[in-house]
């Protein structure tokens, strides 16, 4: 393991509420504490994407509608270790 302490900022496309595999990927990424979920386009509709982001504790500004670039929308955002 590296001495680098800052977690890797992770954004997800898909994997919101009722998507089994999304939870699997989030849990796997959290196992070693090196990743933190900071953004996502989590569902096929803006409403479901926002609801999924809220359920995961993401701020509304970090959840984008499908087709938007969540990396560009969150460029420069500061995150705390979760």
What does the largest sheet look like? 2 strands, parallel
Distance between the termini: 19 Å
The arrangement of helices and strands along the chain is EHEHH
Helix content: 25-40%
Summed over residues and divided by their number, the pLDDT gives a mean of 80
Radius of gyration: 12 Å
Low-confidence runs (pLDDT<50, min 5 residues)? none
- Structure annotation, total helices: 3
Secondary structure class reads: alpha+beta
Name the overall outline.
globular
β-strand amount? 15-25%
Q: Give the number of DSSP strands.
A: 2
**Oligomeric form:** single chain
Strand order of the largest sheet: 1-2
Write a short abstract of this structure.
It is built from three helices and two strands. It has helices spanning 20-30, 46-55, 70-73, and strands at 8-13, 35-41. Strands 1-2 form a two-stranded parallel sheet.
Q: Any chance you could write out the topology, listing elements then pairs?
A:
Blueprint: E1 8-13, H1 20-30, E2 35-41, H2 46-55, H3 70-73
Parallel strand pairs: 1-2
